[in-house]
């Protein structure tokens, strides 16, 4: 049981500054509204953006920067397909982190899960 408690504490959010929380929430709403598809993998979620607009790259980088402050244990991976193809953001590196990402997406009312 002690091991499980340590894992839960380690996965807790570390972000406390109000301005950072407000900006992070804004980015969640902005970025998640642009998701075309969310794919659940064994250890992560992949958010696919088919039609990247001119701001998406900057928004994704800023989103990752804030999330790393909040959740330094979470793995992020950005994939850019050739010739202006889709961009994918993969988040998570274990079933536990995948479940936390799913919870955040549900809280933000991301409905395009597949």
Question: How would you summarize what this structure contains?
Answer:
The protein has helices spanning 2-10, 18-32, 56-70, 95-107, and strands spanning 37-40, 45-49, 76-80, 87-91. The protein is α+β, with helices and mostly antiparallel strands and 114 residues long. The radius of gyration is 14 Å and the shape is globular.
The number of distinct β-strands equals 4
Q: Name the helix and strand elements from N-terminus to C-terminus, one letter apiece.
A: HHEEHEEH
- In what range is the share of β-strand residues? 15-25%
Q: Give the % helix.
A: 40-55%
Q: Would you state the CATH class?
A: Alpha Beta
Q: Please give the order of strands in the largest beta sheet.
A: 1-2-4-3
DSSP helical segment count: 4
Describe this structure in words.
- This protein is of the alpha+beta class and 114 residues long.
- It has a single domain (19-107), classed as Gyrase A, domain 2 (2-Layer Sandwich), CATH 3.30.1360.
- The protein has helices spanning 2-10, 18-32, 56-70, 95-107; strands at residues 37-40, 45-49, 76-80, 87-91.
- Strands 1-2-4-3 form a four-stranded antiparallel β-sheet.
- β1 (37-40) and β2 (45-49) form a beta hairpin.
- α2 packs across α3 (56-70).
- The longest helix has 15 residues, at 18-32.
- Residues 1-9 and 110-114 have low confidence and may be disordered.
List descriptors:
alpha+beta, 46% helix, 114 residues
């Amino acid at each position: 049981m002690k091991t499980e408690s340590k894992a839960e504490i380690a996965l807790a959010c570390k972000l406390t500054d109000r301005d950072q929380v407000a900006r992070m929430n804004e980015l969640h709403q902005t970025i998640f509204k642009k998701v075309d598809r969310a794919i659940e993998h064994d250890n992560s979620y992949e958010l696919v953006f088919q039609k990247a607009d001119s701001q998406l790259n900057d928004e994704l980088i800023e989103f990752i920067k804030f999330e790393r402050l909040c959740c330094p244990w979470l793995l992020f991976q950005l994939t850019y397909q050739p010739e202006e193809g889709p961009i994918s953001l993969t988040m998570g590196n274990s079933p536990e982190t995948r479940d936390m990402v799913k919870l955040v997406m549900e809280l933000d009312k991301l409905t395009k899960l597949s």
